[in-house]
Amino acid sequence: MNGGPEEVRCMLMRGGTSKGAYFLAADLPAQPAVRDDLLLRIMGSPDPRQIDGLGGAHPLTSKVAVVSASAGPEADVDYLFLQVGVERGEVSDRQNCGNLLVGVGPFAVERGLVAPTDGETSVRIRMLNTGDLATATFPTPGGRVDYTGSAEISGVPGTAAPVVIEFPPGGSPLLPTGNVLDTVAGTPVTCVDNGMPTVLIAASALKITGYEAPEHMEKDPALADRLREIRLAAGPLMGLGEVEGTTVPKLSLLAPPAHGGAVMTRTFIPVRCHTSIGVLSAASVAAGLRIEGGIGQDVAELPAAGERLRIEHPTGFLDIEAGVDTGGSDPLARRTAVVRTARKIFDGTVFARPASTLDPRSPR
Q1: CA–CA distances in Å: residue 134 to residues 92, 168, 289, 331
Q2: Angstrom distances, CA of residue 334 to CA of 136, 286, 287, 326
Q3: Fewer CB in 10 Å around end: N or C, the chain?
C-alpha cells in the first residue's frame, strides 16, 4: 500500500477530441509521487490495453485534469494537466492540454468552485503547467451546465453545447529559438510556441505527402526515426532541455490544404499521430502560419488577416482565430480563440487497481 486513497471521486469527460478523468485537487494525494502512483492504477497503466482502468489504450484517452480554486486573483480556478503513459508507467506534467481545458469550466461549476449565472458562465482558468491563462464561456441556463447544443467539431460524433475558449495576448515571443527558420537535424523547421511548443515541418521535407492516414504514418519506421531525431534536437533549442522522456515539443507536419482550409496537418504526440489536432497545437500552428518567412509560407493558403484559420487534420478541421503582432523585434501573439465542445460522461467514484510489487514505471 502507498498510503493514498483507493476510492476517489471522479468525473469522466470528453473535452474537445480527447477524453480524460477530472479530479478536484483536494481529492488526490498532495505528494506528486503518491498522486502519480494512484493515477497510474486508476488509468490501468502500464498496459497497452489499460484493461484494468479508465484509460482507453491511447494517449488521447489517458489524460487527467486536476482542478482547484485558484490561488491568485487573475483566475477563478487552477488546472493541472497530467499525461498518463499507456505502455509505460509515467505521468508527465511537462505540457498543457487544450482539449481537456475545454471541460475545466463546466467541471468547476459542477463541483461548486465557480457560481454559475443564468444564461452563460465564464470561468477564468490558470494552466499550472505553464502559467498561461484562458477563459471558457459556456451555457448555464437556470444556473446549470447544459451540455446539449448544435455545435459540431470534427472528430466527435453528434453535436453539443459550444464552449468558447479565449486566450489572452501572450507576452512571450512566439519563436522560442529567436529565428523564423531553423535547420534541425538537417531539416528546415519553424519552432513556435503559442501555448504548446510545436515544431512545424513541411511534410514534403520528410518525403511524404502529409495526407497519409495516421495509422500508416505510425507504421513507417524511417519516418519515426526522422521525427525522433528532429524532436530530440529541437527540444534544447526551444529551451525545453532534454526531451527524450517527454511529450513536448509536438511535431506538426504541414501540407497544402485539401478541403478549402488553410493547411493540412499531421501532429505527433510524440510517436502516435493525432487523429485530429489539439487546441493548443492548433493555436501554435495558426500563429506560426501568420509569421512571414516561416515554413508554412510556401504550403498554406491563408485567409485575410483577422479571419479565422481552418486547420485541416485527419478527421476534419478546426477553426481558430489567431492574430500575430509583427511590429516589434519579435513576433507576439494577439487574441487567440476557438469554439469547442465538452460532455460529461459519468460522475461518481473510481476504484484504483490495488497496489502491488509491480514497478509501475516499467513496461510489462
Answers
A1: 21, 7, 22, 20
A2: 17, 12, 9, 10
A3: N
